[in-house]
Amino acid sequence: MDLKLTEEQEMVRNSVREFAENEIAPLAREYDEEEKFPKAQLEGLAEMGLLGMIIPEEYGGTGFDSVSYSLALEEIARADASVAVIVGVTNSVCCYPILCFGTEEQKQKFLVPLAKGEELGAFCLSEPHAGSDATNLKTRAVLDGDGYVINGTKSWVTNGGESNTHIVIAVTGEDKGKKEVTAFIVEKEREGLGVSSVEHKLGQRASKTTEMSFVDVRVPKENVLGDPGQGLKVAFNSLDNGRIGIGSLAVGIAQAAYEEALAYSKDRVAFGKPISEHQAIKFKLADMATEIEAARLLTLKAAASKDADHKKTGVRASMAKLYASEMANRVCAEAIQIHGGNGYSREYNVEKYYRDARITTIYEGTSEIQKIVISRGILKG
Ligand code: CAA
């Protein structure tokens, strides 16, 4: 088993780290405070090809493997998790399903501008009453002549209002009590599509999260993604991929919190010596470093196994997302504890990491949902 990164993977990690440290991290606090969407940072990332990382070059992407994708997202999140979630969502749950399920025409029309970073993507699955219970959808798309008419409300849409292209999952029929669900590509300009509200969140505040309303939104049949009735497959296949991204993002947040706690512990003196010399703090640092390394390995393993065989992604991606997100919450809480009262102040970054980490056990499937996916996989054998 080779745990060594390739030269190309090392290069991706180093170049993204350099950009993130210089262009993203210095602005992260200001953008968080002001809930300001990080347009300039995204332009820089687009120039580096990071908005179409896992998309082949023939469709405008960079053609990274999933390991490089994971390394890049970790580095972006180490600087600012808000920027990382924007990048993760457009890559993994918008570009990727078009790559997997799109026709050649759809790839040329929608994927190329997304992968080049000229446009941004979003994923519309959740609804006000259907989060974890994702198949219980009310949004309907009714066949009408040469197209479909979509009506409904989608919630928790990352990039909502900033996105040009939306993957929308809607009910198109019912057969013997079972809903037929279909995926659509819906452009921003479609009449009847709008942002109905913007969320004001605890963390990742520079990323935009909205509710979106669909009122008689007409799309042509050419905008159906995959076959009619394949919508849940499109959605869950995309989320398998997305969960590797969230695992990587959680590792990045934890790494940032750990680094700040380590530096602070060497600087802060109590009882006549730096607090890093007290066993209570040493042991915290040891636990934090160990847990981060474990989560990183689990996440990279999920990414590597996706590269080897996509069908094996589901359980591994859920394990990575489950462990990394829970770990990030523990590590960020300890980073605050090491900072003492200062950790609770906005003067220091650790309170931001703590807030940013909180959502990682919830979005793209809660920890409880990951346990359902993992246990089903284990029991199926
Ligand atoms: N790949 C492909 N297809 C899959 C699949 C996968 N990994 N998992 C399930 N499917 C298919 C099934 O084969 C099934 O197809 P058929 O109906 O043709 O048989 C269909 O999808 C439904 O699957 P289940 O019967 O397993 O569905 P379920 O109702 O039991 O739900 C669940 C399973 C795991 C609980 C699922 O609902 C789930 O993952 N819920 C969480 C949803 C989630 O992660 N939401 C986050 C939204 S995105 C977000 O957070 C916002 C953002 O922008 C970041």
Q: CATH H-level name of the largest domain... which superfamily?
A: Butyryl-CoA Dehydrogenase, subunit A, domain 3
Secondary-structure class = alpha+beta
Percentage of residues in strands: 15-25%
Q: How helical, in percent, are the residues? A: 40-55%
- Give the total of domains: 3
Q: Order of helices and strands, N to C?
A: HHHHHEEEEEEEEHEEHHHH
- Nearest-angstrom radius of gyration? 21 Å
Give unreliable regions as ranges. none
The CATH architecture name of the largest domain reads Up-down Bundle
What is the CATH domain class of the largest domain? Answer: Mainly Alpha
Number of helices in the DSSP assignment: 10
What is the β-strand count?
10
Could you name the CATH topology of the largest domain?
Butyryl-CoA Dehydrogenase, subunit A, domain 3
The global form is globular
- Average predicted local confidence, pLDDT: 97
Offer a concise description of the structure.
The chain contains 10 helices and 10 strands. With 381 residues, it is of the alpha+beta class. It binds acetoacetyl-coenzyme A (CAA).
Description:
The protein has 381 residues and is of the alpha+beta class. The strands form three sheets. It has a four-stranded mixed sheet. Helices cover 53% and strands 17% of the residues. The model has no long low-confidence stretch (mean pLDDT 97). α1 (7-34) packs parallel to α3. It has three domains: 7-115, Acyl-CoA dehydrogenase/oxidase, N-terminal domain (Butyryl-Coa Dehydrogenase, subunit A, domain 1), CATH 1.10.540.10; 121-228, Beta Barrel (Butyryl-CoA Dehydrogenase, subunit A, domain 2); 233-380, Butyryl-CoA Dehydrogenase, subunit A, domain 3. It has helices spanning 7-34, 39-47, 66-79, 81-101, 104-115, 231-267, 279-308, 313-339, 350-358, 367-380; strands at 121-124, 140-144, 147-158, 165-175, 178-187, 193-198, 209-220, 224-225, 269-270, 273-274. The protein binds acetoacetyl-coenzyme A.
